[in-house]
Specification:
The structure is a single chain. By secondary structure, the protein is an alpha/beta fold. It has three domains: 64 residues, no CATH class; 220 residues, Rossmann fold, CATH 3.40.50; 71 residues, Roll (Pdz3 Domain). 44% of the residues lie in helices and 18% in strands. The strands form three sheets. The protein has a seven-stranded mixed β-sheet with strand order 1-7-6-2-5-3-4, with helices on both faces. The chain has a four-stranded antiparallel β-sheet with strand order 11-10-12-13. Helix 11 packs antiparallel against helix 14. The termini are close together. The N terminus is likely disordered.
Length: 408
């Protein structure tokens, strides 16, 4: 934890010096006081982390309080006022940082406050591709266990970010029967577009993404170029086409649901797809004409980096948080082929200590049948004990191994 915090805040002193000396005069009034106050806490957090003073680290981290800021004035605003305003919009876009713990906590708070109990709210997710929609419907109806849900959507293949960050939101949707909408295009299609371009799609593949694809928005292209700097050997035009496929398909998926069911939607997607209102927001607006509000989160550790766009272009609300490292994932320490044959056992890992060998075939963990390479990761996230029994096939027979992986 300490070394993660240190790596995140390593250069904050230099950044703060530049901010205070060269740019602080561009901040005014309450907004100036707020940012200087919060970044002062961030400086103390970095200093305590660098010196290894754990008590001081905890005290400084607790002192950095999240604040809500209005886009128009920069002044702090009461959260209750913000939620009241956001409830009047047809669509609220939450621009997330995928691996930021505090960001996901605020997402849940947003969901709880946008949910009026009238049954008119849905949540659209970048994390799920269109073919997963029947699974999401089953989940919301309470027809799937959590294990079945993860296995059917193949979470760690289709998305990959730590499931515990998103879990409270999924559970809330199921408990309150809030429709979950799979917004994204199929992964294999967007990857193909990124490699060989939109024109390389077959008719069947083209039918899986947005019908109306517009590639000539200059502001949107500039946004893309800022997010994805040029790399030798990569065709950025093809990558931009894939980026448009993402944005247009997610917008079309959201618009289809809104036209069919009416009501409101909370859209949860990465900030690159919402930044400046140019990606998903503008494309939903083009299709529905409805009202739109955007909520961003930023952490104080990245303040100078984002200074020129401090209020997040296009945002209605900006929520500052303390730095929040991604949680460590439980790891067994092995890799497998698609048919679950162990190909790598990391030295010193839980797998090696348990006696797993290269060539073993994974069969069961605890009481769960392992049917795909990601199954073991799904099991590790859902188990309740550090110790479990792993069954592998070896030399024509089943071998039971006792494994210990710390709970994170």
């Amino acid at each position: 934890m300490l070394h993660l915090l240190l790596s995140l805040l390593l250069d904050i002193d230099a950044r703060l010096d530049q901010l205070f000396k060269g740019r602080a005069d561009r901040l005014t009034g309450q907004f100036h006081d707020l940012i200087i106050h919060e970044l002062g806490h961030a400086r103390r957090l970095h200093q305590a982390t660098r010196e290894g003073r754990l008590d001081a680290v905890r005290d400084a981290a607790r002192a950095v309080k999240p604040e809500l800021l209005q886009r128009s004035s920069g002044a702090p605003v009461d959260p209750a006022t913000v939620w009241k305003e956001l409830r009047t919009a047809q669509v609220v876009a939450f621009a997330e940082t995928h691996d930021h713990v505090r960001c996901h906590e605020i997402q849940l708070e947003a969901l709880e406050n946008l949910d009026t109990g009238k049954g008119d709210l849905a949540v659209g997710f970048e994390m799920f591709q269109r073919p997963a929609q029947p699974v999401l419907d089953q989940w919301v109806r309470g027809e799937l266990t959590e294990w079945e849900f993860l296995e059917k959507v193949n979470w760690y293949r289709s998305w990959g970010f730590p499931y515990p960050l998103f879990r409270p939101i999924f559970l809330y949707c199921r408990e309150h029967r809030i429709p979950m909408i799979a917004l994204n295009a199929p992964q294999e299609v967007t990857r193909k577009v990124g490699r060989t371009g939109l024109r390389s799609l077959t008719d069947a593949e083209r039918a899986l993404v947005a019908e109306d694809l517009r590639l000539t928005d200059r502001a949107h292209r500039r946004n893309f170029d800022e997010i994805f700097p040029h790399h030798p050997g990569i065709n950025l035009d093809f990558y931009y086409e894939a980026f448009c496929v993402w944005d247009e398909t997610m917008a079309e998926s959201a618009a289809r649901h809104l036209r069919k069911a009416g009501g409101r939607m909370l859209v949860i997607a990465g900030s690159g797809h919402i930044r400046g209102g140019l990606g998903i927001p503008e494309r939903i607006r083009r299709r529905t004409g409805g009202t739109f509000r955007i909520l961003y989160t930023r952490d104080t550790g990245s303040a100078e980096e984002n200074f020129d766009t401090l209020l997040a272009p296009g945002a209605d609300v900006l929520w500052w948080t303390s730095p929040s490292p991604s949680p460590e994932r439980p790891r067994l320490g092995l890799a497998t082929s698609p048919d679950l044959v162990v190909t790598v056992v990391a030295p010193g890992s839980a797998a090696e200590k348990a006696g797993v060998r290269i060539g073993d075939v994974l069969k069961r963990a605890g009481r769960r049948e392992l049917t795909q390479p990601e199954s073991i990761r799904h099991f590790l996230e859902l188990r309740r004990r550090e110790e479990f029994r792993l069954v592998v096939a070896r030399d024509g027979r089943d071998v039971e191994l006792e494994v210990t992986v710390p709970l994170k």
